[in-house]
């Protein structure tokens, strides 16, 4: 059995990555979503072990020092990481693992693995991104301002990705990602 591939989906905060990923996972049973670890506080409705593995900063740093992460980095003042054991278990079962990670993490994964497909999701306009972040009502204005500044840096890295998908209409963006995965079947299977 061939090992699976790591499928990376990145994009600025508020672009709709999580929503697209949920839709893709409903259609594809050969993909497993990696649940990231984070030191960020849970948002309303998020569940530990399902949304994220919520950790204290101390727990996270201990895990990092023990080599428990495929990649980790600081984003928006919080630590985020991909647990190596979960990734290896999924890949060794011949399944593909989907990582929703930022551009820093994506770069680290690409440097350490060859079986990687990367997709960057962009908004149709920067104003659309601003509107989406405000409509979420999950962060205060200073956090939104920080996320928008980071978005510029993230958008500057799109040339490193294999594919770019514009999330103007959710159904179209989801279909675009499913089409990418379908077109890679001969490569990733």
Describe this structure in words.
With 189 residues, the protein is α/β, with parallel strands linked by helices. It has one domain (6-188): 3-Layer(aba) Sandwich (Rossmann fold). Helix content is 44%, strand content 22%. The protein has helices at residues 17-27, 57-65, 84-92, 103-112, 126-136, 141-155, 170-183, 185-188; strands at residues 6-10, 31-33, 37-38, 53-54, 69-75, 78-83, 96-100, 116-122, 163-166. Strands 2-7-1-8-9 form a five-stranded parallel sheet, with helices on both faces. It has a four-stranded mixed sheet with strand order 4-3-6-5. Helix 1 (17-27) packs across helix 7. The longest helix is centred in the last third of the chain and has 15 residues, at 141-155. The radius of gyration is 16 Å and the shape is globular. The mean pLDDT is 89.
Q: Which range does the strand content fall in?
A: 15-25%
CATH architecture: 3-Layer(aba) Sandwich
Spatial order of the strands in the main sheet? 2-7-1-8-9
- Can you tell me the number of structural domains? 1
Shape: globular
Helix content: 40-55%
**Count, helices:** 8
| CATH fold label | Rossmann fold
Q: According to CATH, what is the class?
A: Alpha Beta
Cα-atom Rg, whole angstroms? 16 Å
Major beta sheet, specifics? 5 strands, parallel
CATH H-level superfamily:
P-loop containing nucleotide triphosphate hydrolases
> What order do the SSEs take from the amino end to the carboxyl end, as H and E?
EHEEEHEEHEHEHHEHH
